[in-house]
Amino acid sequence: MPKVAYAPIIVSVYDRLDHLKRCIEALLANDLASESLLYIVSDAPYREEHIPVIERVREYAASIVGFKEVRLLFREMNLGAHESIKVAIEEVLLTHESFIFLEDDIVVSKDFLGYMNEGLNFYENEEKVFAICGFSLPFRLPTNYDKDVYFYPCNSPWGFATWRDRWMKVDLDYCDRYAILKKSPAKYKAFVSIGFYIKGILQADSSKKIAAMDLRVYYHMFSHHMCSVFPVLSKTQNWGFDGSGEHCGSQRAWWAKPAMNTSIKPITFIPFEGYNTEILKNHRILQDKINGGILAKYLKYTWIHRLYNKVKTKLA
User: Would you say the pTM of this structure is higher than 0.85?
Assistant: First the structure.
């Protein structure tokens, strides 16, 4: 009987040693860690003062044991987070059919790797499913919902798994997606209905203020009518809302550390047969609440909001 091949794990790092240690310790608590290949992707410093801490991060990465094998992808030149991760995934997919991705600020449950690999197997031939996601917002579920997973028309980068045949079709290069969508009011409205927060990311990515890989993945999913699978009980937490992350800031994000599933009962996956409309509604309600509520929904990311930011900057 052939031995099962588990999806390789890719963890991207930069200068957050404590975060990386926490992430690795959580992964090692998984039964499948010893049978999984781990890639550590470390971008080179873009500032001279970052050199010492990145060296310490790399020393720790080189010392990691407990996985089937640890492979180190250490950059000699700074590529930036977007390009470094993009190239790393492409390298891994040269020899693997799928992958599991985490940034270093993600903490996972003890059954995270089992959940990811089982999901990859279950949905491998379901072309509508783009990814298996580990993070789930603590939104209100329908009272009669008794499934272990649900579907949502977006992807969460806070621990996900996908396949080569899905990932390699995503255009991760720059283009003005905002201008493209605005040509069709109906299409733009449908795109931002995922949550009004997406407007700001879309505008920032399209104006080259940031390179938002997550936004570009969502744009691909939207264009091809795809969804992701999410657990009812989250299997990851994000510990990056401490000012150390690239885009997370230092706000108190209670929702980023939902209670994780501690049950040893295996997840039961279900085929995609459409969305649960109440789940979509409640998920978006919480997203809008997180991003400022009803007032922000109609003022944030508009010219009024941009004018306010300019005035605030001048008065500071």
Answer: yes
